[in-house]
Specification:
This protein is an alpha/beta fold. The protein has one domain: Alpha-Beta Barrel (TIM Barrel), CATH 3.20.20. Helix content is about 40%, strand content about 20%. The strands form two sheets. It has an eight-stranded parallel beta barrel with strand order 1-4-5-8-9-10-11-12, surrounded by eight helices. It has a two-stranded antiparallel sheet with strand order 6-7. Strand 6 and strand 7 form a beta hairpin. Helix 4 crosses helix 5 and helix 9 packs antiparallel against helix 10. The structure holds ligand PBG. Ligand PBG binds next to helix 6.
């Protein structure tokens, strides 16, 4: 036997020499949920360890994450039902608790990278990412609303905006609006291949943002398909996206790899709420070693080709240390 692959696994020192992929804290973006009020820290039941914070406590949370080496945050607002309307007006009204909080966060931690989500669902009484009319999701009319939302977030200090709505043409539309208004340096991380997935439910619990009727299948992608991810990625590249994102991550490692091989932009993957909940639930039952399952799944996402990972595990990994 001339070829004995086990020789390269015989000691920890040799294994680390041949190790191809290594996680780093600088790969992570930590999603955080913001609520109005003071001194609020409300658990998300389907996501043990994850909370909705009021601004004062979120500042403390961000501070402790920065000290641990997490430098990028994606901040989602949870709005009460009475603030929502069909046109997601609250998403671009000046002086909302969310936009004010972004300003404060950015002023307090200018070195942190702050990302925001561009889609109507947290502000929409219909719970959809776009404008609903007679049960249909209107594309071009939604773009106008997303444009106003994007500008409001850029004004509040967002470093990266993340269009998660899956409307056609939005990356180019938002890039143009940002540029015309002097925000040439605001980046776009496009949710390029966002699938109509069962794995978003805990997130929708966190924000109370589930669709009131129907589903998101006319805009989010069909889990059966990989080839249309190539069309979405090509359009995002042409329309000026700075990063391409695949979402969810674990059930879509093939899509991450596909985009990584075909496109020169950095690839991000969103390790979504349901993926977090699965590991937490089985660890709580003693069925999995939660820490090992967490690190193995994050490593797999990186090995598939994602340089950037949005994950609710970010702080926990930083606490353990890499
Ligand atoms: C909103 C949005 C969703 C997520 C991120 N942005 C939910 C959805 O599309 O229904 C999901 C994140 C997660 O599950 O962790 N457009």
């Amino acid at each position: 036997m001339l070829r004995r692959p086990r020789r390269n696994r015989k000691s920890a020192a040799i294994r680390s020499l041949v190790e191809e992929t290594r996680l780093s804290l600088s790969d992570f973006i930590f999603p955080l949920f913001l609520i109005d009020g003071i001194n609020q820290k409300v658990p998300v039941h389907s996501m043990p360890g994850i909370y909705r914070y009021s601004l004062d406590l979120m500042l403390e949370e961000i501070d402790s994450c920065l000290k641990l080496g997490i430098n990028a945050f994606d901040i989602f607002p949870a709005y009460p039902e009475e603030k929502k309307d069909r046109f997601a007006t609250e998403s671009y009204r000046e002086d909302t608790f969310y936009l004010n909080a972004l300003r404060t966060i950015k002023q307090t931690f200018p070195e942190a990278c702050i990302m925001t989500d561009v889609a109507m669902d947290p502000y929409n009484s219909d719970g959809h990412d776009g404008l609903v009319e007679n049960g249909r999701i209107l594309n071009d009319e939604t773009l106008e609303i997303l444009g106003k939302m994007t500008l409001a977030q850029a004004r509040a200090g967002a470093d990266i905006i993340g269009p998660s709505d899956m409307m056609d043409g939005r990356v180019g539309y938002l890039r143009k609006i940002l540029d015309e208004n002097g925000y040439k340096e605001v980046s776009i991380m496009s949710y390029t291949a966002k699938y109509a997935s069962a794995f978003y439910n805990p997130f929708r619990d966190a924000l109370d943002s589930a669709p009131k009727s129907g589903d998101k299948k006319t805009y989010q992608m069909d889990p059966a398909n990989s080839r249309e991810a190539l069309i979405e990625a090509q359009l995002d590249l042409e329309e000026g996206a700075d990063f391409l994102m695949v979402k969810p991550a674990l059930a879509y490692l093939d899509i991450i790899q596909l985009l990584h091989q075909r496109f020169p932009l950095p690839i991000a993957a969103y390790n979504v709420s349901g993926e977090y909940a699965m590991i937490k639930a089985s660890a709580a039952n003693g069925w999995l070693d939660g820490e090992r399952a967490m690190l193995e799944s994050l490593l797999s996402i990186k090995r598939a080709g994602a340089k950037i990972i949005l994950t609710y595990f970010a702080k926990e990994v930083a606490q353990i240390g890499l």
